[in-house]
Design goal:
The complex is a heterodimer of chains A (50) and B (374). Chain A is mainly alpha-helical and 50 residues long. Chain A is 52% helix and 0% strand. Chain B is mainly α and 374 residues long. Classes of the chains: A mainly alpha (50), B mainly alpha (374).
């Protein structure tokens, strides 16, 4: 990203954004057999793209 | 059919990005996507619990449609959040942690769903399965608190202040702006090169089905006996490599993560091509780790994008993946004519092309380029 962005975000805010991203993604994977799996077949084959 | 519905709605998140481009809408948009996604799970659970069976089929068609739209918006907004709200170094660290831990959650989710539905997880764990419809009620219902918890956590996010020109972005379809956005994506040589490398790598990994078919021949016995080991290898490697690739972005450069993921995919297929017996299974582990290419190519494209284009560029990248649907057919044709091993060679060919392209045409550190953009 450009320098202006790099210097305008406090580290604590970046940490919070990272935490939101990490937890949201982990929850997506947790419920993947019902939602993320494109076949929607509840196959549990773990072919979901992680 | 549910898969087809999911594919039909794939372009809709892009329309949402076109219609509501303002960065001020990032958090509300993400929050609403998560609330609707959770509500869809809760409603499906209620239908399974109380409605007659004739209602089940419409639910199984509408639910993936809602998931397809909200999932697309969620991906778009989450990547915009870390694109706008983090330095590349912090983003690399975050990706490492996220995709190191994520695969463990995927295994936990799969384990829980298999225990609920069949009462058996790869022969390793056995419980009494829940009877229908309560198994479906529990599975679909559980997605609701998970998504709503995520929606609450989104309120913690801090989106950095936007520029004056960005804050002036209005809702509604503005054709001129859409045209500029399309040019900013498809005429930006870095983005286009990364996108072509991404599609070539994605295409190469579609060989996984053929590798599964070849397993019986390579192992000399029923591959189902090794389903547990295959799963452990695939997600163990994915988790370990998830941590390692994040470290690579932070310590080296973003291009290294593209080279690494594509090379790991090549190694996995080459392994399957040459190594017989039980060691054949290690190929699935390598390919499982290499599948993280998706994350790092997207990260490269995000890093090449202007902040005001992050949302739609992520949507374009997700949209172009629909073209990969032809690859299993193409590999099927190759294997029908020349054998399964020939299709492995074809997949390696695609991945080598991606590697050459990335190495020769992309800089180590992506930069926001003006050429071909606004």
């Amino acid at each position: 990203m450009n320098e202006a962005i790099e210097f305008s975000i406090p580290e604590s805010a970046q940490f919070r954004n990272g935490l939101v991203f990490m937890i949201s993604m982990s929850l997506i994977y947790l419920i993947a057999p019902v939602t993320y799996c494109r076949k929607q077949s509840i196959c549990g084959s773990l072919r979901c793209r992680c | 059919m549910p898969e087809a519905v999911y594919l039909w709605v794939t372009p809709l998140p892009l329309l949402i990005a076109w219609f509501w481009p303002s960065p001020r809408l990032l958090r509300p948009m993400l929050t609403w996507a998560l609330i609707v996604k959770g509500a869809a799970g809760a409603l499906a659970a209620l239908v399974f619990a109380f409605a007659p069976k004739s209602f089940w089929v419409p639910v199984m068609l509408i639910h993936p449609g809602i998931i397809g739209i909200t999932g697309g918006v969620q991906t778009m907004c989450l990547w915009e959040l870390i694109g706008r709200g983090m330095t590349p170094e912090m983003r690399g660290r975050t990706l490492g942690w996220t995709f190191g831990i994520g695969p463990i959650f995927a295994v936990l989710g799969s384990c829980a769903s298999q225990l609920i539905l069949k009462g058996d997880f790869l022969g390793m764990l056995k419980v009494t399965p829940l009877p229908q419809p309560w198994s479906y009620v529990l599975l679909f219902g559980a997605s609701c608190p998970a998504m709503w918890l995520s929606a609450v956590l989104v309120q913690m996010a801090r989106v950095p202040p936007v520029s004056l020109c960005e804050s002036a972005a209005e809702s509604g379809v503005q054709w001129k702006e859409i045209w500029r956005g399309l040019r900013a994506y498809f005429l930006n040589p870095l983005i286009v090169t990364a996108a072509v490398g991404f599609l070539l790598t994605y295409g190469g990994t579609m060989i996984m089905n053929n590798m599964s078919l070849y397993a019986r021949e390579a192992l000399g016995e029923a591959p189902e006996q090794y389903a547990g080991i295959q799963l452990a290898l695939r997600f163990g490697f994915k988790s370990l490599m998830g941590f390692g690739l994040g470290w690579l972005v932070t310590r080296m450069h973003a291009r290294a993560s593209l080279m690494a993921t594509t090379s790991i995919c090549i190694a996995g297929i080459a392994w399957a091509l040459f190594v017989p017996g039980k060691w054949y299974l290690l190929g699935f582990g390598l390919l499982g780790g290499g599948e993280l290419f998706y994350v790092y190519y997207l990260n490269y494209i995000v890093s090449c994008s202007k902040p005001e284009r992050l949302r739609e560029n992520t949507a374009y990248t997700n949209l172009i993946t629909v073209t990969i649907g032809v690859m299993p057919i193409a590999f099927g044709l190759v294997s029908d004519r020349f054998g399964l091993r020939a299709s492995f060679v074809a997949a390696i060919g695609l991945l080598v092309l991606a590697l050459i392209l990335v190495q020769s045409r992309l800089p180590r550190q992506p930069k926001v380029a003006d050429a071909g953009s606004d």
